[in-house]
Design brief:
mainly alpha; elongated
């Protein structure tokens, strides 16, 4: 009772057996944390010396917790923790913002801390700042790359519903990017752009006939966009050959990934509450893990998207430098 209320707890590590003293010290630090001060009293002189062993133990615990968090890309657990240096916490806050596509907060943190980040690692700081600026401008190819790494992170963390959500967004953005190039319309999912797309389709009888046979309206959903791209690739000789080649390269892997449509649709991110797992997704895709990532990457490659380096590993490396 008294120990719980005390502002400072002193542990005497003199006398007795070494094993008992060590156990006393470790147990007291585990329970009372920063309030513990270990003392050594010299048997010859009686001098009392405070030891830093408690602080060393606590720092070891914290570093182990840090490495566990970074291994799981769990930056959100580091950002509010006052035991970390302020710069390390801001790096974690930036990484967490990027993981949640909060590019405004990401920009504020990276720009505000840029001189400090540059001192830690000039190349990494420059790379992250350039990425942030492109993401804020909603550059489609950089967004696709960020979705890829976000999907990688969710898969690693076994957040499989979020993983499928990212994969579906990759496919949707890939289709929108190709249709935007084919139609010249800024396809942003709004009713206005849907109307413009419908008008564009009515001026192309070959497309209308193809869609009518499948009872599909020219809209910005996955089924309709895929059908329109198939028709453009097969029938639209007026489209540039390079565009039709890109369509031909994107559609097969995108179609293969849509084999996970059923578990995705029945999961919490769509229309149900059915659970997801690594084995369920791979079984539906009929792929092993390496082949699944190759299939996703082939969509990016067809759109000339360089996946680059894992940004979350870059954040982790910077954070370790800020918390040496």
């Amino acid at each position: 009772k008294h120990a719980k209320e005390a502002e400072r707890i002193y542990v005497l590590c003199t006398g007795g057996t070494p094993a008992c003293n060590t156990a006393l010290l470790i147990t007291s630090v585990e329970h009372y944390r920063e309030r513990v001060t270990a003392l050594y009293v010299s048997e010859k002189t009686g001098a009392c010396t405070p030891l830093k062993v408690g602080a060393v133990l606590l720092d070891g615990y914290r570093r182990a917790a840090r490495e566990h968090a970074l291994a799981q890309y769990d930056f959100a657990s580091i950002a509010p923790d006052a035991t970390y240096p302020e710069l390390a916490r801001d790096i974690a806050r930036a990484a967490s913002a990027r993981a949640n596509f909060d590019f405004e907060t990401l920009d504020q943190v990276i720009a505000g801390r840029y001189p400090d980040l540059e001192q830690l690692d000039a190349r990494a700081a420059e790379h992250l700042l350039a990425d942030t600026q492109r993401l804020r401008k909603e550059d489609a190819r950089y967004l696709l790359r960020d979705l890829y790494w976000n999907a990688r992170m969710r898969w690693h963390r076994e957040e499989f519903a979020d993983f499928l959500g990212r994969v579906w967004r990759v496919l949707e953005m890939a289709y929108q990017t190709l249709l935007c190039e084919a139609t010249g319309i800024q396809l942003d999912g709004t009713p206005k752009s849907d109307t413009e797309l419908a008008v564009w389709a009515t001026h192309r009888p070959w497309l209308g006939e193809r869609l009518a046979k499948r009872r599909i309206d020219p809209r910005q959903n996955m089924v309709a966009m895929e059908a329109m791209l198939e028709a453009i690739g097969d029938c639209d000789d007026a489209s540039p050959a390079a565009l039709r080649e890109r369509i031909a390269a994107v559609l097969p892997p995108a179609h293969a990934l849509q084999a996970a449509r059923e578990p995705r649709n029945k999961s919490v991110i769509a229309h149900g509450f059915k659970g997801l797992s690594r084995s369920v997704i791979l079984e539906k895709l009929n792929l092993d893990e390496a082949s699944m990532w190759q299939t996703i990457e082939s969509v990016l490659t067809a759109l000339s998207v360089d996946k680059g380096e894992n940004p979350y590993e870059q954040f982790a490396a910077l954070l370790r430098k800020a918390d040496p």
